[in-house]
Amino acid sequence: MLRNVGFMSAIFVAANVVLTASAYADDQDVIDYRQHIMKTMGEQAAAVGMIVEHRIPPDNFAVHAQILAVTAASAKKAFEPKVLGGEAKPEVWAKWADFSKRLDVLVTNTAELSKVAKDGGFAAAEAKLSTALTCKGCHEVYRVPKK
Amino acid sequence: MLRNVGFMSAIFVAANVVLTASAYADDQDVIDYRQHIMKTMGEQAAAVGMIVEHRIPPDNFAVHAQILAVTAASAKKAFEPKVLGGEAKPEVWAKWADFSKRLDVLVTNTAELSKVAKDGGFAAAEAKLSTALTCKGCHEVYRVPKK
To answer: ipTM of this predicted complex?
Structure first.
């Protein structure tokens, strides 16, 4: 009987290991995942930039603002695992309180941008852009410079 | 007086040209813009793919589904200007009725995916993924193959 209990425990432990392995990613997966999120932000910020520069009509502006807000809200979870590498500087985790707070501010400000754009379009939201999209300031501290 | 009318008309025509130039993009801008939108879809679909393969936890699944739905809804406007080039095959505009209909279906199905995911998470939505994300079928017809 004791042997049976031991056997069942062994299965239970093994099952836990499998569950952990499937719920958490390996390091490259963690890096890839957060890059998918940040590239989404980059593509949408670039679309917004084209509207600001009058290179394309502003019809989709509220949609871009919404995507930026929703994506920003998904970013923190992607950076929570402390996995160095990719374009993230070690400062992301060394100064997590600051990095995390900046993400929160990004979430709040892009949500506000999205709301204003939904109600009043690009004309109403344009003045809020420089406050909402603080990409550069954060990248200067936390992203490895592009070569 | 006639000369003045002519002069004013000339100004009016010139103003129209300027307005047109600022409201509509040049060809490369049109291409760049639709690529920002499709790359957003690609990054988010890749994030979904990582969840499906259990390489990352499904916590953000509903957010990815929402972004896919909202982005899909913004895509048609980006393809409306008939500007060949980039990765779009000429078939996009030669078979616009079909291309446009496929985009509508994508919008409907990703919106449904997003709704189910919001209510029931990844577990509830997973079965709808293959119906919602028909990237490959559409790309085979309308996108220039990657080299």
So the answer is: 0.83
